[in-house]
């Protein structure tokens, strides 16, 4: 056997072992049929972010309608390529509100190391769309159609307002929308970047896609040894229910809030993704320890809703090559009352009220309340830097200052506002906005695929299915009917 054959054989077995360890994904290396396309995406996103600094927190109507075109040349392609970013300022604003900095976003979606390949997410989806995961699996890239892009642009302002009103919403968090055109003679490909609901998914045992209907809602489980993660459906649901414990009331309330929003924009056929991971004994114990509860309460009522856990001193003004991070940012407090700070690591709201999911026993934080102190005019004592209220003397925020409420982990809202926004006790875990700790399971939850409208084509499909299927057992129904059925399903299938 020649040396070349031996090397090829060794490389083959190395790839097989790697794929066995990563059963839900397949690495998109230079032998993968989608390798060039994913490289175009990487280079396009990097080139755009380095040349178009859309740092805006105070948004106008024009920002929600903006489409910025950028021409670049990929190292893999000699002719110019077209790249468009939709509402870049709006998505920048949303990334900041969930704690995803420009540096982190760039390094995650488009790392400098060309060997940091994307993963192809292997599913039994019938949509025909492509799903890619970043190297650390925190972000997912999904191809979409031009009509879906147009629809999302029309409802983008409502989507952002919904997230601002209900920061703990179950709706999937989109952080970017783009298109790329490899040749002027080819049609552009459209895609969105969103938080992966199944992150981190190494220990997830079961994954479900649940619509709340009956027809076609059973999937044959994967065979032993299969490299594909099968997304199960309603009739596969283990034990038939989600056992959320103290989080049940919050969950049902948030389902109602989110589905009413989806009704208002006239969509149907959306799903709740569910991932199940057993909670270990030490994890359950930690959830009930007072120190953990205190820190989780502080995080749950904080104005920042951090998924990526940036350090307290990290700001968007830090100069980290190659991003241009020196632009002036004026970020007024748009979320309500003035921030409150404390140099202590423990916080409870002024009125001492509880959040959904708070442990009601001897470890309750209410038995050890710590009074929060208001931010002084000299700045925030917990971070040792000026607050966002300071100006340069002309009433304009200093260029060197960023919004205190976006970086200070002690900037909080009142318990009344937390209740109105249906906030819950967030777990001490990555991806906390999409994770709920139930009785003995950790659940990954998020509503996806809410771009389907009740068009004339869907109405014809509804008329056809009413003839051959029992009433209301299929997904193609009026948005109001779909939402009512979705809510009822979860009323009956949570405990």
Report on this model:
- GO terms for molecular function: 1-phosphatidylinositol-4-phosphate 5-kinase activity; ATP binding.
- This is Phosphatidylinositol 4-phosphate 5-kinase-like protein 1.
- Residues 312-402 are annotated as: Disordered.
- The protein has three domains: 3-196, Phosphatidylinositol Phosphate Kinase II Beta (2-Layer Sandwich); 212-268 and 449-495, no CATH class; 280-309 and 343-359 and 402-437, no CATH class.
- It contains 13 helices and 16 strands.
- It has helices at 3-21, 35-51, 61-65, 88-97, 102-109, 146-165, 248-264, 281-288, 290-300, 404-407, 415-420, 456-468, 479-492; strands at residues 25-27, 67-72, 81-86, 119-121, 131-133, 139-144, 174-181, 189-195, 206-210, 267-268, 271-278, 340-341, 373-374, 435-437, 441-448, 452-453.
- The strands form four sheets. An eight-stranded antiparallel β-sheet has the order 1-4-5-6-8-7-3-2. The protein has a four-stranded antiparallel β-sheet with strand order 9-11-15-14, with no helix packed on it.
- Strand 5 and strand 6 form a beta hairpin.
- Helix 7 (248-264) runs antiparallel to helix 13.
- The protein is globular.
- The N and C termini lie far apart (62 Å).
């Amino acid at each position: 056997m020649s040396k070349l054959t031996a090397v090829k054989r060794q490389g083959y077995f190395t790839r097989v072992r790697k794929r066995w360890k990563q059963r839900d994904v397949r690495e998109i290396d230079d032998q993968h049929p989608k390798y060039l396309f994913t490289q175009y995406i990487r280079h396009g996103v990097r080139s755009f972010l380095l040349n178009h600094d859309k740092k805006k927190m105070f948004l106008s109507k024009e920002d929600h309608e903006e489409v910025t075109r950028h021409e670049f040349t990929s190292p893999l392609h000699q002719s110019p390529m077209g790249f468009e970013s939709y509402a870049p300022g709006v998505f920048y604003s949303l990334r900041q509100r969930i704690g995803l900095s420009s540096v982190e976003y760039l390094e995650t979606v488009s790392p400098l190391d060309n060997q940091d390949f994307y993963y192809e997410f292997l599913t039994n989806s019938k949509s025909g769309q492509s799903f890619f995961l970043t190297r650390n699996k925190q972000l997912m890239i999904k191809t979409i159609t031009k009509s879906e892009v147009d629809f999302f642009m029309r409802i983008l302002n409502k989507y952002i307002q919904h997230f601002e009103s209900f920061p703990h919403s179950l709706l999937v968090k989109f952080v970017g929308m783009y298109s790329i055109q490899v040749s002027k003679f080819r049609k552009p490909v459209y895609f969105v970047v969103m938080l992966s609901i199944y992150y981190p998914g190494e220990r997830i045992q079961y994954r479900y896609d649940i619509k709340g209907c009956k027809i076609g809602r059973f999937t044959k489980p994967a065979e032993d040894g299969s490299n594909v993660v099968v997304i199960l459906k309603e009739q596969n649901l283990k034990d038939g229910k989600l056992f959320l414990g103290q989080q049940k009331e919050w969950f049902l309330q948030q389902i109602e809030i989110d589905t009413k929003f989806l009704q208002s924009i006239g969509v149907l056929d959306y799903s709740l993704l569910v991932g199940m991971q057993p909670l270990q004994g030490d994890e359950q114990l930690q959830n009930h320890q007072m120190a953990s509860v205190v820190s989780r309460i502080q995080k749950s009522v904080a104005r920042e809703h951090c998924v990526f856990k940036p350090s307290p001193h990290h700001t968007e003004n830090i100069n980290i090559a190659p991003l241009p991070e020196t632009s002036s940012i004026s970020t007024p407090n748009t979320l309500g009352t003035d921030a409150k700070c404390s140099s202590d690591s423990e916080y409870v709201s002024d009125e001492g009220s509880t959040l959904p999911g708070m442990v009601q026993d001897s470890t309750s934080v209410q038995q050890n309340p710590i009074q929060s102190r208001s931010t002084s005019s000299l700045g925030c004592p917990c971070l040792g830097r000026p607050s966002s209220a300071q100006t340069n003397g002309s009433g304009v925020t200093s260029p060197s200052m960023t919004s205190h409420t976006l970086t200070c982990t002690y900037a909080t809202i009142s318990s009344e506002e937390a209740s109105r926004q249906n906030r819950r006790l967030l777990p001490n875990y990555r991806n906390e906005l999409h994770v709920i700790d139930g009785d003995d399971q950790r659940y990954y939850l998020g509503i996806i695929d809410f771009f389907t409208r009740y068009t004339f084509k869907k109405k014809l499909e509804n008329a056809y299915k009413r003839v051959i299927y029992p009433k209301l057992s299929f997904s193609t129904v009026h948005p109001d009917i779909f939402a009512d059925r979705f809510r009822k399903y979860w009323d009956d299938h949570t405990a």
